[in-house]
Amino acid sequence: MFNFILFGPPGSGKGTQSIKVAEKYNLAHISTGDIFRRNIKEKTELGIKVKSIIEKGELVPDELLIDILDDAMSKVSGKDGFVFDGFPRTCQQARDMDVLLSLKKESVSIVLALDVNDEEIIGRLLKRAELQGRKDDTKEVIENRLDIYNKQTQPLIKFYKEQNKFTSVNGIGGVEDICNSICTVIDSQ
Ligand code: ADP
């Protein structure tokens, strides 16, 4: 199985590229952000629990994530692996993921980051706010999300570099060009 983590700050294009990569390589796309938004919309117990956390741009507690991941992975069949989009976001999540995958006799194949600077990110997210009206895309919340990314998620780069699993591509440019760069990295594996 090919277990691919698409990594990068909020607004780096992980969602868009994950869908394309998943389709091209017959992988299941697992976006924890999408799972949370679906639960909020459907007012499930989980949705009610995480709504205010997400609206503030904070991270959902690690202990909730692993069961969500396990559940999402268990529902998949007939795929050649997974694209993880928005997970893991903390070192604890990365360690929990390794345990879960090893129970399934699997492991993380590669971690690929979309490289996009903060200025571009803020511009994109503000634009998305206008187009999609996501509650966590206001200026204040965006800054909080970037801050949390820098403090809690960036350290994962070191975690995966130490395992020789980390690589990155330029995340600024046309959607197709970025997709081609990602595919070149995947094909070279
Ligand atoms: P983005 O990449 O634009 O920040 P996502 O759709 O991936 O957006 O996530 C939206 C929000 O959902 C995050 O800001 C966070 O509150 C919550 N979330 C998603 N994935 C995780 C995760 N792995 N751990 C904790 N919180 C998460």
Give your account of this protein's structure.
The protein has 189 residues and is of the alpha/beta class. 57% of the residues lie in helices and 14% in strands. The protein has nine helices and five strands. Helix 6 (118-132) packs across helix 7 (139-153). The model has no long low-confidence stretch (mean pLDDT 95). Bound molecules: adenosine-5'-diphosphate. Adenosine-5'-diphosphate binds at residues 10-11, 14, 32-33, 36, 53-54, 57-60, 65, 86-89, 93, 136, 145.
How is this structure best summarized?
This protein is an alpha/beta fold.
Which structural class matches the secondary elements? alpha/beta
Pattern of helices and strands: EHEHHHEHEHHHEH
Kindly, what is the distance between the CA atoms of the first and last residues, rounded to a whole number of angstroms?
13 Å
Bound molecules: adenosine-5'-diphosphate
- The unreliable regions are none
Number of strands: 5
Radius of gyration (Å): 16 Å
Oligomer: single chain
Question: Taking all residues together, what is the mean pLDDT?
Answer: 95
Spatial sequence of strands, sheet with the most strands: 2-3-1-4-5
Reported for the largest beta sheet, the result is:
5 strands, parallel
Query: Which percent bin holds the helix content?
Result: 55-70%
What is the approximate shape? Answer: globular
| Beta strand % | 5-15%
- Number of H- or I-type helical stretches: 9
